[in-house]
Amino acid sequence: MSTDLMPIQGYDYIEYYVGNARQAAYYYGKAFGFSVVAYAGPETGVRDRVSYVLQQNDIRWVITGATRAESDIARHQYFHSDGIKDVAFTVPNAEEAFRLAIGRGAKPVREPEVEEDEHGKLVFASIAAYGETIHTFVDRSNYSGPFAPGFVEKHDWNVNESTGLSYIDHIVCNVELGKMDAWAKYYADIMGFTQLHHFDDEAISTEYTALMSKVLWDGEGRIKLPINEPAEGKKISQIEEYLDFYKGAGVQHIAIATDDIVATVSDLRDRDIKFLAVPDKYYDDLRDRLDWSTIDADIDQLANLGVLVDQDDEGYLLQIFTSPMQDRPTIFYEVIDRHGSRGFGVGNFQALFEAIEREQEARGNL
Ligand code: FE2
User: Fold this and answer.
1) If you measure from the C-alpha of residue 38 to the centroid of ligand 1, how many angstroms do you get, rounded to a whole number?
2) What is the distance in A from the centroid of ligand 1 to the CA of 337?
3) Residues 6+ apart with CB under 8 A from 133
4) By Cβ atoms counted within 10 A, which residue in 63, 68, 183, 184 is the most buried?
């Protein structure tokens, strides 16, 4: 199987380019329950940027900001607003993964590079993905440091209790009109991924807007990457709104798994995370639509928290979506708690998109 040629062991890190890394790290730490574990900046010999590494269970985010206006990080932030630059994968051999990817048509961004310090050596190599997003291959099998050379361990600031967010379930990107198939082919050709689901605009449409989506995955469930593109609708779709404000393709949302969504969402609400509002009617419909004998959850409690439910042949899932996390209506987050279902909540798309449209309308962008 082709995936064996490029064994991706998991997400290594997600790197954000932001306007003010110190404040963004503080926000994500306090609001989502991440803790700062490592730092790089002028004090550690890195002159052009500061980066905070945030960790929560198996999730690692790197929050990076520029120290100089001339920096490409500053340009990226000005253009896209705070955004996700790098979705990095851990691989056993970064050089080999890079060569394979380039051989299969990927565009190089960073040639394989070995970085060394007293903790050992780390190999990085990057390829281009949608928009200005990149994928970095990381081989850390010979490295024991806190993150990477240039970083020092840091545990004296912004240490927070976990909210139960456990690992990345999937990362969704929005691409330009007509580009979904080309990006699906990219992940098939370059990473050896296969298509798990396909949602057409019939499945995902409201009275006003529509989108299409294909889910590419590694075949094992470690990496799942849905790709959205806008579809013809009466008004501006949520995908077009994103593309307009992000100024191109990019990460739309990261879904993070928890094994107790009630506890996690209660905690996040206490920390003032704002979620999309679901009308009572959704829960009235849900009582009839689903087989509640196999669902181990209290619908009143879910309604109270605004958690959505979907069910298929394999089981069910609980999910909830935040509002966008920046001033521009771009990246948001999903919290997901799977009980057998490997789906993405297709039964909730209608209610979800209507909720997004209510917010779009409030922003004057529908
Ligand atoms: Fe999702």
Assistant:
1) 29
2) 12
3) 84, 85, 86, 87, 173, 249, 250, 251
4) 63
